[in-house]
């Protein structure tokens, strides 16, 4: 048993070091390239009256010669439609056209599909209503489409800066998602992306039949599309644009309950990918955290067990701090070692909670629950 935990500690440090190395390696794209395509931004929203002014303000500030914005209302009942209509009517910017439409059904995928079907742009970009876009977003996210073989570009998402530990915990969690996203693309097996920061060719979307076959799932519009593109065009059709100019900032969850609900929703789709590689990539990080959690039993093995437990925790904390601070430093996010220490100690319990939630299979999101069917 002691040997097992000792090897786990060594393997974990090596894994985190490898991921940090892959993050530091430059993507194969040319940073100096700037996209100049006909583009359409699809912005689905449901009950987002409190977020629409922020996202639309960032859209108005986008630096691009000409683009189209399509807002799709997914059954809002909080006045979001009227608010969006008034904000757009008052806009004096003339570098974009806009349409405000109702979804042809219910659910985010249906809303996205409604907008994409009416889009005029050759490149589609999607984001969420609780986000803020960087000024150069359209140029940076469309730049790699100059390569004919690139059909989908994924970009980074981070929660906005905060001063409390709960905010730091979420930023560190997001950093782990970005780390795995880039590493999987670099290794030729793209695994995940976020619909809050995604660009793809409309022709590719149509060629893979969009979200067909996945409408019944409440979550996963982004990853299901990613997998379809990879199956049809190969892994090289996906590019991960991790430059700081591409970062979309989202609002952090404000309670532990809402954070768990979000993670339940994300994790609930892992078995739907029907890929052993994807299943393994989802299970391995979870298994590591559960093994770390089980290591508390080493205390009962005397001083030798206590020493190994201390060494194991130290390797976990330092490995995560080294890899995840590499990501956050890259984006100018400075988080104290103390926050990393607390996150590393708490995270196994958080993962266990998510696992239990996924097994139970129930969650709520934007007034809909896991039993919702479009």
List keywords for this structure.
374 residues; alpha/beta; Spore Coat Polysaccharide Biosynthesis Protein SpsA, Chain A; seven-stranded mixed beta sheet; 12 strands
Strand and helix layout:
Blueprint: H1 2-24, E1 39-45, H2 52-60, E2 67-73, H3 80-90, E3 96-102, H4 108-118, E4 123-126, E5 131-132, H5 137-142, E6 152-154, E7 157-159, H6 165-186, E8 198-201, H7 202-207, H8 221-233, E9 238-240, E10 248-250, H9 256-267, H10 276-294, H11 303-330, H12 337-360, E11 364-365, E12 368-369
Parallel strand pairs: 1-2, 1-4, 2-3, 6-9, 7-10
Antiparallel strand pairs: 4-8, 5-10, 6-8, 11-12
Helix pairs in contact: 1-6, 1-11, 6-11, 9-12, 10-12, 11-12
Describe the protein in words.
The protein is of the alpha/beta class and 374 residues long. The protein folds into 2 domains: 189 residues, Spore Coat Polysaccharide Biosynthesis Protein SpsA, Chain A (Alpha-Beta Complex); 121 residues, no CATH class. Helix content is 49%, strand content 13%. It contains 12 helices and 12 strands. The strands form 3 sheets. A 7-stranded mixed sheet has the order 3-2-1-4-8-6-9, with helices on both faces. Strands 5-10-7 form a 3-stranded mixed sheet. Strands 11-12 form a two-stranded antiparallel ribbon. Strand 2, helix 3 and strand 3 form a beta-alpha-beta unit. Helix 1 runs parallel beside helix 11 and helix 10 packs across helix 12. The longest helix is centred in the C-terminal third of the chain and has 28 residues. The chain is globular. The termini are far apart. About 2% of the residues have low confidence.
């Amino acid at each position: 048993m002691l040997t097992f935990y000792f090897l786990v500690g060594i393997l974990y440090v090596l894994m985190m070091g490898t991921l940090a190395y892959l993050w530091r390696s430059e993507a194969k794209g040319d940073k100096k390239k700037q996209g100049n395509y006909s583009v359409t931004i699809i912005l689905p929203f449901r009950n987002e009256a409190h977020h629409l002014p922020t996202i639309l303000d960032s859209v108005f500030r986008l630096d691009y010669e000409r683009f189209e914005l399509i807002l799709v209302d997914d059954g809002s009942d909080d006045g979001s439609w009227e608010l969006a209509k008034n904000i757009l009517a008052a806009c004096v910017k003339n570098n974009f056209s806009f349409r405000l439409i109702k979804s042809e059904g219910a659910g985010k995928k249906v809303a996205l599909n409604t907008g994409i079907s009416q889009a005029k742009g050759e490149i589609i970009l999607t984001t969420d209503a609780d986000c803020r876009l960087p000024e150069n977003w359209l140029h940076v996210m469309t730049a790699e489409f100059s390569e004919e073989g690139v059909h989908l570009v994924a970009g980074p998402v981070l929660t906005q800066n905060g001063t409390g530990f709960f905010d730091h915990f979420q930023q560190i969690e997001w950093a782990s998602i970005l780390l795995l996203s880039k590493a999987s693309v670099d290794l030729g097996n793209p695994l995940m992306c976020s619909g809050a920061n995604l660009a793809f060719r409309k022709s590719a979307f149509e060629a893979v039949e969009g979200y067909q076959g996945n409408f019944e799932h409440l979550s996963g519009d982004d990853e299901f599309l990613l997998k379809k593109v990879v199956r049809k065009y190969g892994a090289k059709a996906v590019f991960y644009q991790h430059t700081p100019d591409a970062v979309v900032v989202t609002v952090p969850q404000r309670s532990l309950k809402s954070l768990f609900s979000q993670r339940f929703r994300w994790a609930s789709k892992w078995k739907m990918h029907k890929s052993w590689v994807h299943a393994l990539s989802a299970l391995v990080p979870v298994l590591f955290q559960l093994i770390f959690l089980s290591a508390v039993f080493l205390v009962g093995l005397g001083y030798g067990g206590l020493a190994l437990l201390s060494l194991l925790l130290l390797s976990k904390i330092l490995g995560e701090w080294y890899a995840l601070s590499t990501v956050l430093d890259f984006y100018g996010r400075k988080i104290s070692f103390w926050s990393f220490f607390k996150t590393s100690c708490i995270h196994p319990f958080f993962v266990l909670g998510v696992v239990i939630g996924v097994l139970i299979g129930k969650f709520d999101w934007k007034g809909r629950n896991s039993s919702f069917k479009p």
